[in-house]
Amino acid sequence: MTHLISIIIPNFNRATLIEETLDSILVQTYQNWECIIVDDGSTDHSAEVIQNYVEKDSRFKLIQRSPNYPKGANACRNIGIQKAVGQYIILFDSDDLMTPNHIQEKTAIVTSGDFDFAITKTEYFNNPENYNSINYRNLFELPISADHFIQKEINWLTLDPIIKTDVAKSICFTEKNQSAEEYNYFTKLILTTEKAIAKDIVLSLRRYHDDSFQFGKNIDEKQRQINYFYYYWDSYLEIKDYSSLSKSSKSFLLEQCYIILINNKFHLDLSKFIFEYFSFHKFKSLKKIFNLLRF
């Protein structure tokens, strides 16, 4: 028996690139798939390009994000995940490519044991100097655990996992902080289940852009650092009540927020953070923590 695999792709103004992505799906050695492309209100002719594929192959499905729904790739992923009917989900991007054995290998790995998700690797296909190569840290040496992922001892990209659909549907991407999409979602995933396996095999080919490593591009440095603060803080607020969140991981998230604040002296509304930090460290008076955060 073959499993139906649901591929979820957000799209925004990728008319010149998405054909390559969809062509790489068409030539998969594993053919039992559906591909749900959620368009984020493109202003180019993306929808027309995608519709041509839908008309040629009913496995492709085009969904237009409602104007009443939040904008962004994360929101589109959430829409696609909820529409998926396959037994497993693969998250993909509209400018990247699958190797021909991508689905075949991922499906074989995740079904080889009692796993809720499996992780493979991505490399750049248009970056001959291997500049800023993808850092998986110790993914293939350390156990896949919440502490290792949250504390950034292991890492993977959005393109890398295949996830059981019922697990993927039980959590969602943040629609608040676009910069935290991978970390935020996979933190919730690994807190939900650690039944995972990683295999050191390249199955995704990522397109390198000049701005690929600009976290919050086209903004000034102060705003970039504020984004970093909320990268950790928003994730902390979402997961702090998970029973599987350890004290060490909670401490890591709070300390990252604290380090960013004291290094940049932001004048933000910090009342919630101060309360959490105060409670975690069990300070006997608020005076100490206000002194620590004194700008």
Instruction: Compute the average pLDDT.
Output: 91
Terminus-to-terminus distance: 62 Å
Q: Mind summarizing the main beta sheet?
A: 8 strands, mixed
Helical coverage, percent range? 25-40%
Helix segment count?
11
Strand order of the largest sheet: 3-2-1-4-7-6-8-5
Total strands: 8
Large-scale geometry: globular
Strand content: 15-25%
Radius of gyration: 20 Å
**Spans of 5+ residues with little confidence (pLDDT < 50)?**
none
Derived structural class: alpha/beta
Account of the 3D structure:
With 295 residues, the chain is of the alpha/beta class. Strand 2 (33-39), helix 2 (46-56) and strand 3 form a beta-alpha-beta unit. The longest helix has 19 residues, at 221-239. It contains eleven helices and eight strands. It starts with a strand and ends with a helix. Helix 7 runs parallel beside helix 8 and helix 8 (221-239) runs antiparallel to helix 9 (247-264). It has helices at 18-26, 46-56, 73-83, 102-110, 146-150, 165-169, 181-192, 221-239, 247-264, 271-281, 286-292; strands at residues 5-11, 33-39, 60-64, 88-91, 97-98, 117-124, 161-164, 196-206. Strands 3-2-1-4-7-6-8-5 form an eight-stranded mixed beta sheet.
